[in-house]
Amino acid sequence: MAVNENAELEELIRNATGSGGVSTVPTDAEAADEGGGLDFDTLLLVARRSLLWLLLLIGLGLTGSWLFLRYTKPIYKSSSLLKIDEKTEAGALGLGGALGETAGGRQNISKLSGEVELIKSNIIYRRLKDSLDLDVNYYAEGTVLESELYGVSPFRVEYGGDILFNTKFGLSFTSPTRFRLSYLQAGQEQTGEYSIGEPFRIGGMTLRIRTTPTMDASALDRTFHFIINDEGAINSYLDRNLLVEIVNPDANTIQISFQDFTPSKARAIVNKIDTVYLQEKIAQKQAATAQTLQFLDQQLTENRQNLAVAEENLQSFARQNKTYDVKATIGDLTARLEKQEEERLKLAEKIRLLNEVAALAEQGAITAREDMTVEQSIPALATIDNPQLAQQLTELNGLQWNLRRLSRSYKETTEAVQQQREALNYVKGNLRRTLRQSRELLSSQLAALDRQRNSFTSELQTLPQKATELARLTRPLELYEKSYLMLMDKKVEFNIAKAGTTPDFQILSPASMPNVPISPVRLMVYAIGLASGIVLGLSLMAVRYFMHNTVTSVRELERATQASVLGVIPTYDKEKMAVSKLVVDKNPKSAISESIRSIRTNLDFISSAKKKRLISVTSTISGEGKTFVSVNLGGIIALSEQRVVILDLDMRKPKVNLAFGAENVKGISTILIEKHTIQECIQHTSIPTLDFISAGPTPPNPSELILGAKFDEMLAELHKTYDVILIDTPPVGLVTDGILIMRKADIPIYIVRANYSKKAFLKNINKLMRANNFTRLSTILNDATSSGMYGYGYGYGYGYGYGQGYYEETKPTESAITRLRKRFS
Questions:
Q1: What are the C-alpha distances in Å from 740 to residues 57, 279, 645, 668?
Q2: How many other CB atoms are there within 10 angstroms of residue 562's CB atom?
Q3: Which of 248, 280, 312 is the last residue of a domain?
Q4: Is the pLDDT of residue 623 over 90?
Q5: pLDDT tops 70 at residue 376
Q6: Does 740 reside within a domain?
Q7: How far out from the chain centre does Cα 693 lie?
Q8: Which of 80, 99, 78 minimizes the C-alpha distance to 88?
Q9: Which of 78, 612, 680, 795 is the most buried (most CB within 10 A)?
Q10: Are 572 and 606 within one domain?
């Protein structure tokens, strides 16, 4: 068994630093380069070691899910789907229009939002509280959770007076006719025993407890409590659990949902909301219609009175004037005046047009194209209806065009131009006379019309004031008649609406009894627990894998180093040792003896040509078991009839003498300084062919002693007597003495301790082989468990497989706690 020397590691590092040794412990950057990828063997080892933890965490996750479901009250949800459309029979009778608008018509999204607010308003809440027993909550207390007894409570509470709202009253039956009541008041518990059915007072509140048909003998063994809710608590409860949503605005559908711990209560509330909402809608519609009819009746009464007065006034006028034709006469005169006014406007327009033509003629501005007539150029001339004027204008236009053409070809003094201009002046003179005569004629006609209008006006003025009086009396009569007829029509329409308007309140999906809770969902909770356990287990595996920085198996050793593996030494757990000891002589048939024999055989293969061998044993740091391996390997070789001497060159911390229980007064250090001879320092062991030389007193310069010629002379002299020289060297990871000795050795051996040596140390082996050309450097895996020896043929296949039932050693009896601790380690 390798000796655990973790406590001495820090001291060794200090000693190596103080003696000027060069540390070769790999840095973190070098360690990060080691392995260079995912180590599937290590991952499989960690997974196998963590399997029980994974199963345990999965079990804990599922157990947590079960506990959560066990101690969490399930929430049930009941829903109903409503289609809200208001229709009226008035539309079917052809009385739509305004009546259809009054009856509601097709709902849009804004109206549906209004319906949602109505359902969640205090109007519906008050009717719910009046219809359902929401003022008192009854509960039965269980082992862990309490359950509400909605509709199945074995007792009923009647209360009055100064009520203690929102107070928990505990109740337990002491007999079929008596009960005990307890509650907290001012932080102190109050208790009393009362009779069923008899009123009693608590402060200013009067209570009476009555039994219900659900009362049975089992209720005597149970504990109950009840709470009297005030209006605020009930409203808060309804607001918190009621959900009203618009499902489809085009289809006018609304979903009403309610959540509660009691499925029957949730269903009852949803059904009652449907009923109360229908009643409220009908009541609102009937109230609106009744108010409208009342207003119509009031207006009809007032209008009927005004109409009677107007009719009486008109009858009085007819009796006095004996006629109703004044209105017709006035109408005829008015029509004639309107006709005359139209003719007068036409004459005025003609006079204006003649004035404009005269002005144009004087200015010479009447020009039209040669291919057009003057009437076409001035369309308004047709309204004058004077052919002579049109002819003269046409002639004037032709002369103007001829004058322009001549002016372009001849001078102004030319005879032809002078003749054309004289002809043009003559036509203009005729045109002036014609225009003047036409204007005079039209002015005389206009004066005649003015005289006729004055005649009609005088005639109207001469009519008595009967027409005005008649018109004044007729206007209110017509107004009251129209208003009366309109109000009568509206009253008929609203009477039809009152009889035919019904809210089209269709329950597309009634509220059913919820059997499965919406929360918590059992499958989801168990899935979360299972996933949590798996995630935690895999996380534990990942953490253990990334924290797994020690060598555990031969496969890791072979994978990370270029050195050959001589063998594996299993864990020696037959006894506890404070220091390394020779054990192969006491247990020659043990598994550890057989494993070291296999190493001896492998050494024979490596150095079969040499009879004299120098073997050095080293490691990276102290505590990896190089002294234990050196002593027992030397013992096994000595048992094969070879003379072996073990040299303890770990002068800073000698241990070989402790393994054999000897003193360290003289040894290698005194030989090298020639204070003692080799024969004086050789010490014998229980094995006749095995001797050893201890390190001797610690010198100040171990490295210089080893480099001296005296050291080589000592080795040469020992070769004369011994077949094998086995050197226990200092750790090469702390000081350089071991490297100096390894260069002289025929077979350098590097000890790696399972579950102790860091994986980063393996890189040190490769560096030593490359830097010093150690082609024969071999490694031994020390203190390996059965899993660490797996894959190494002899150590596992023979050392354990063959050894069962053959080796003399027996494993010590382990307690169940010890085995469990090892299993989870």
A1: 52, 106, 19, 15
A2: 14
A3: 280
A4: no
A5: no
A6: yes
A7: 75
A8: 99
A9: 795
A10: yes
Q: How far is CA 506 from the centre of its chain?
A: 36
Strand-strand pairing, 136-141 and 146-148: antiparallel
Same domain, 775 and 679: yes
Longest dimension (CA), the chain: 177
Instruction: Answer yes or no: do 125 and 166 share one domain.
Output: yes
Domain harbouring 786, CATH code? 3.40.50.300
Q: From the CB of residue 213, how many other CB atoms can be counted at a distance below 10 Å?
A: 7
Q: Are 464 and 366 in contact (CB under 8 A)?
A: no
CB-based contact 639:675 (threshold 8 Å): no
Res. 574: pLDDT tops 90: no
Q: Is residue 717 within a helix (H) or strand (E), and if so which, with residue range? A: helix 709-721
Taking the C-alpha atoms of residue 718 and residue 713, their distance in angstroms, rounded to an integer, is 9
Is the preceding peptide bond at 702 cis, omega within 30 degrees of 0? no
Task: Give the relative orientation of helices 387-409 and 415-462 as an angle to the nearest 10 degrees.
Answer: 150
pLDDT at 214 over 50: yes
The number of distinct structural domains making up the chain is: 3
Cβ 646 vs Cβ 656: under 8 Å: yes
Q: Is the residue at 498 inside a domain?
A: no
d(CA 539, CA 61): 14
Please state the pTM of the whole predicted model. 0.55
Residue 237 structure tokens:
């409860």
Cα separation of 220 and 234, whole Å?
30
Percent of the residues in the chain that have a pLDDT greater than 70, as a whole number: 80
Q: Bridge-partner residues for 81, per DSSP?
A: 255, 509
**To which residue do tokens 């192969």 refer?**
584
Burial (CB < 10 A; 0-12, 13-18, 19+), residue 245, is exposed
Please classify residue 174 by burial: count the beta carbons closer than 10 Å to its beta carbon, then call 0-12 exposed, 13-18 middle and 19+ buried: exposed
Which residues are registered as beta bridge partners of 778? 564, 749
* 385 in any annotated domain: no
Residues 52 and 111 in one domain: no
Please indicate, yes or no, whether residues 64 and 181 belong to a single structural domain of this protein: no
At residue 150 the predicted structure's pLDDT band, cuts being 50, 70 and 90, is: very high
Q: Amino acid identity of 7?
A: A
Measured CA to CA, the distance from residue 596 to residue 639 in angstroms comes to: 12
In a domain, 769, yes or no: yes
Return d(Cα 127, Cα 282) in angstroms, integer: 14
| Residue 213 or 500, more confident | 213
Do residues 535 and 682 both lie within one domain?
no
Q: How far is it, in rounded angstroms, from Cα 716 to Cα 722? A: 10
Q: Where are the alpha helices (DSSP H) in 71-208?
A: 89-92, 98-103, 109-119, 122-131
- Helices and strands: H and E segment counts in the chain: 29, 21
Indicate if 60 and 89 belong to the same structural domain. Answer: no
Q: Provide the mean pLDDT of the chain.
A: 79
Range of the structural domain that residue 761 is part of: 549-824
670 or 703: which leads in pLDDT:
670
Q: Which one is predicted more confidently, 196 or 441?
A: 196
CA angle 72, 125, 265 (to 5 degrees): 35
Strand partners, 76: 260
Question: What residues contact 803, with CB distance under 8 A and at least 6 apart?
Answer: 590, 591, 594
Domain end (from 280, 315, 347): 280
Of 569, 573, 584, 568, nearest to 810 (Cα)? 573
Crossing angle, helix 816-824 and helix 51-70, to 10 degrees?
100
What's the rounded Cα separation, in Å, for the pair 196 and 176? 8
Average pLDDT over residues 581-604: 88
Q: Which amino acid is at 62?
A: L
Euclidean distance between CA atoms 267 and 515, whole angstroms? 11
pLDDT band at 282; cut points 50, 70, 90: confident
| Residue 66 and residue 153 share a domain | no
Buried b (16+ CB within 10 A) or exposed e, 268-306: bbbbbbbebbbebbeeebeebbeebbeebeebbeebeee
User: Using CA atoms in the order 505, 509, 513, 515, what is the torsion angle rounded to 10 degrees?
Assistant: -160
